[in-house]
Amino acid sequence: MKTDNLLKIPNWLKEEYPFSPVVHTTATGARLSYLDEGEGEGDHAVLMLHGNPTWSFYYRNLVKELSPHRRCIVPDHIGMGLSDKPAHYDYKLATRIADVVSLIDQLQLKRIDLVVHDWGGAIGFGVAEQRPNIIGRIVIMNTAAFTSMHIPRRIALCRLPVLGPLIVRGGNGFAGPAIWMAMRRKPLTKTESRGYLLPYDSWANRVAVSSFVQDIPMNDSHPSWSTLKRVEEGIGKFKNHATLVIWGGQDFCFNDYFHQEWLERLPNAEDLYLEDAGHYVLEDASNDVVPRIREHLLKG
Question: Of 56, 104, 216, 233, which one has the greatest count of Cβ atoms within 10 A?
Answer without folding.
Answer: 56
